[in-house]
Amino acid sequence: MRLLAISGSLRRDSYNTQLLRAAGEFASDELEIELYEDLATIPPYDSDEEALGTPAPVADLKRRIKAADVVLIATPEYNSSIPGQLKNALDWVSRPIKESPFRSKPAAVIGASTSAYGGVWAQAELRKVLGVLGARVVEGDVAVPHAAEQFDAEGRLTNAETREQLEQLLDDLVGSATPQPPQFTATATA
Amino acid sequence: MRLLAISGSLRRDSYNTQLLRAAGEFASDELEIELYEDLATIPPYDSDEEALGTPAPVADLKRRIKAADVVLIATPEYNSSIPGQLKNALDWVSRPIKESPFRSKPAAVIGASTSAYGGVWAQAELRKVLGVLGARVVEGDVAVPHAAEQFDAEGRLTNAETREQLEQLLDDLVGSATPQPPQFTATATA
After folding, report:
1. ipTM
2. How many CB pairs under 8 A join A and B?
3. Which pLDDT value is given to residue B45?
4. A74, A89, A120, A154: most buried, per Cβ within 10 A?
C-alpha cells in the first residue's frame, strides 16, 4: 500500500511537511509513505504550453499520483485559500480531465497553520477541487493551529486530540483504498 | 485615472485577456488602461525565498498595483477555483500583509469561460481573497459563459446584457476610486 504525501508549502522547515512526517508514526507497517518534494519545479499552467506536450515535472507528478493507492495533502492557508503553487500543480495534473490521475483515488486533506484556525478555509477549498478532479475525498478534519507549538523535538505531534484525529483520518484513508466486499441489503419484493 | 488590468490566463488568445481589452470600449477618455502581461514570470511563492528579498517580477507587480487607481482582474475558472498561477501572484503580493498594495484599492473581478456558468466560483473565491488583501472589492458580476461565441471580429462583446453589466461595473469601479464628498444626513438631536 503506497501513500503519496504532498505538502502545499515550499518552505524548508514547513509545518505542513512536518505534519506529513508526523503522520508516519501512525502508519501501519504495510503502508509505504512517499513524500513529494518537487512542487517548486511545476511551471505555471498555460494551455498553450500544454498543447506542446506535458512538461517533465508534471508528467512525474501525474505518474506518482497514479502509482499511489492513496494521496494525503497537507496545506497551509494563504490569504484564506489554497496556496497558488499547490493549486497550479493540481491545474496541470487535471489536464486532460478524463485522464486525471485522481480519478477514484482516495485522498485526504490536512493542514497546519501558525494562526488560531489551522487553515480550515484552504482545506475546504482543496477538498472541493480534489472532488472536481475525481478523487474520492475522505472527510475528516486535521487542522493544526499555532503550529509552532505543536511538535516535540522528535517531530511528533504533542496534542492528544490532534494525534487521535490524524490516526483516525489515516485509518479512514487507507481503509477506503481497500476493496470493499459488496453490501447485500434486504430488498422488498412485491 | 489608471486602471491595471490583470488576466488570470496565460494563454495567448485567452478569452479573459480579450474580455479586458473589450472593457476598453466602455472606458472614459480619462481612464488609462494598462494590461499586465507578466504573470508567467512570477516564481512559486516560498517564504524562504521571500526572506532573501522580493523577486524582481514580484516587486514590479506590487509597484504597478500601487500606482494604479483601480484594479480589474479577469479570471478563468480552473477546477472550480482560482487559477493557481494567479493565486500564486497574489500570495506574493500579499507579503508582508501590512504593505499589501491592494490596501483600500478599489478592485473588481470579471471572467470568461467556455463552460455554461462563466466561472462564477473562481470569481467568488477571488473576491474573497482580494478582500483579505485589503482591497475595496466592487460587487457586480460579469461572468461570460460560452466565451468562444461572445466576441465579434473586432473583439467587442456581442451580448447586450453582458455589455451593460461590464459598462456598469466599470462605472462602479472608477466611481469608487473618486473621492466622495462626505454624506450629511439628518441626525436626531436629543
Report:
1. 0.92
2. 116
3. 98
4. A74
